Structure formats: C-alpha cells, structure tokens
Amino acid sequence: MAPWLPLLLASCLSWVARPASGSSNPPLAVNITWSSINFKTILEWQPKPVDYVYTVEIAGKRSNWKKTCIYTKGTECDVTNLVQDVNDTYTAHIFSEVATEDEIGVEELPYSNSEPFTPYKQTIIGKPGIKSFQYNTDHTKLHVVIEDPSTPYKLPSGTLKTIREIFKDDLKYTIYYWRASSTGRKQESTNTNEIEIHVDKGENYCFYAQATIPSRKELRNSQESQIVCTGHEGNSFNDYGIGMLVAIGIAAVVIILLIVALSVTLYKCRKLKNEEKAKENKSLNYI
Ligand SMILES: *[C@@H]1O[C@H](CO)[C@@H](O)[C@H](O)[C@H]1NC(C)=O
Ligand SMILES: *[C@@H]1O[C@H](CO)[C@@H](O)[C@H](O)[C@H]1NC(C)=O
C-alpha cells in the first residue's frame, strides 16, 4: 500500500466529519440585559463577536418564537416591535453562529437565554414634561398640566401612544414644589395630568413632576421632569440645563482669558529678560 493513502483517507474523513457551521463552537452571548425606557426596548449582550455572528429570537408566554437582528455583528438589538403585548413575559435566545457560506438552520445552534422581561412591569418610565402652568387671578393657586412621555407604539390614527394610553388609571403624577426663597419641599398627587397647588400669595415657586405606576412593586417611579420656576414677570420656564450650559460657557471664556493673560505675561517677562541679557552682554563687550 502506498504510504500516502492513509493520510489521504484521514483527511477525507475529517472533511466529511466537519460540521456544517465550522469546526469550533463560537462563544455564547453573556451579560444579556434588557434596556427599556417608555417601552422602547433594546436587548444588549457581550462579547463583541470576532469571526461569528449573533441572531436574536424572542417569544412571549402568549406568542411564538420570532427571529430578529439576524446575523448581526453587533451586541445590541432593538426588539421594541417584538414585545408589543406589554403584559406578556418575554424571553430571548441569542444564537452564536460562525459566519459561513453554508445553508443555515440545518442543525441545532448553540444559544444563551435572557432573563424574562415584562414590559408593563419593567420598562423604565422616562421624564414627564411640564406642558403648562399658570397662577389663578388672585395668585393663590398654581395650575400645572403634565405631559405624558410617549412610547414608540402607534395608535390606529398613526400618532404615538403615550404611557397614559398604556397604563390608563394605573398612572399617577406627583408634583414636588417649594417656595423659590426656601427649600421646604411639599408634594401633591393626581390621578390625571392636571393638578392645582395651593400657594402663598405673591410668592414664586419651583416644582418638578414625577410619574408613579401604583401597581408595580419595583421601578414604581419615573425619572424626574425638569425643574420649572415661576418668574416675577408672569410665568417662565427656568431650565436648569440651559443655566448649566451658560455657566459652563462663562467658565470656558474665563479660562481662555486667563490662559491668554498668562501667556502674554510670560512672553513679556521673557522678552524683558532677553533684553536685560542683551544689555549685560553689551556692557560686558564694552569693558
Ligand atoms: C460580564 O459582566 C461582568 C461583570 O459586569 C464582567 O466582569 C465581564 O467581563 C462581562 N463579560 C464579558 C464577556 O464582557
Ligand atoms: C396589563 O395588566 C394590568 C394589571 O396588571 C391591567 O390593569 C391592564 O389592563 C393590562 N393591560 C393590557 C393592555 O392588557
């Protein structure tokens, strides 16, 4: 028998035995997290893939498995459209697959499981808006209208659903308020989006709004709205964000001026020193 025959056979056999999707198993997704705010939901995981791809598959207790982000080389996937039944509890599989030219779906691919996720209970409620606010004519009450955060989901009319359209009566708002001249904070709650605060006549007030989902045990409170202060000349939004930007701007200008002043001073100093040195040299030369 020719000595090369067993070698040829062996390499033939190993080629036949080669699995369709590559010779080694790619790493599985780990640290899978659901990032969800106002029902916009992104699935995130690690590690970044090298030489392989991920595919996400999601099912609820009341819905069948659906694939999305097929063959992604990323480590996140927007699954908002697959978790629209907000009271359902979803689980995700993340498949790891070596990228090949071969037909896929022939064999069982390795995958990892996410934690279960229920949008109604787990999506974070974002900042509410302050739509309007107004004192009554004798300045004893402040009327505030709160704007619901909107969700990515659409009403049949095509406009975006707000969180009110999803939570309905299971959503209340609290206004935290204080006199502009003091820090004693009070609060007032409402089951609607409008609220009336009793205020001291002639005083200016600052306030912010926060939503609460009473049925929840965790993540009950929303993010806080911006702080709004009433002004002397009627009502005005006092956006702390803008105030901060202005402060940073002023600080930047001051720093730049300082640097300019410092470099001018240094330059003059050096020039003076050089002149003095030149003088010294000259006087030395004369000796
Ligand atoms: C998963 O998370 C842990 C803890 O945050 C971290 O130490 C680890 O590096 C993460 N795994 C990957 C593959 O990034
Ligand atoms: C979701 O569940 C809550 C109670 O947990 C219920 O009040 C609400 O109507 C349900 N919403 C939908 C859309 O099924």
From TrEMBL:
Main location: membrane
Keywords of this entry: Blood coagulation, Disulfide bond, Glycoprotein, Hemostasis, Lipoprotein, Membrane, Palmitate, Signal, Transmembrane, Transmembrane helix
Cleavable signal peptide: 1-22
GO molecular function: cytokine receptor activity
GO BP annotations listed: blood coagulation
Membrane-traversing stretches: 240-267
Domain Fibronectin type-III positions: 8-100
Location in the cell: Membrane
GO CC, any one term: plasma membrane
Membrane topology of this protein: Single-pass type I membrane protein
Interferon/interleukin receptor domain span: 123-231
UniProt subunit comment: Interacts with HSPE; the interaction, inhibited by heparin, promotes the generation of activated factor X and activates coagulation in the presence of activated factor VII.
Function, in words: Initiates blood coagulation by forming a complex with circulating factor VII or VIIa. The [TF:VIIa] complex activates factors IX or X by specific limited proteolysis. TF plays a role in normal hemostasis by initiating the cell-surface assembly and propagation of the coagulation protease cascade.
UniProt family annotation: Belongs to the tissue factor family.
Protein name according to UniProt: Tissue factor
Species per Swiss-Prot/TrEMBL record: Geotrypetes seraphini (Gaboon caecilian)
Lineage, uppermost ranks: Eukaryota, Metazoa, Chordata, Craniata, Vertebrata
Gene encoding the protein: F3
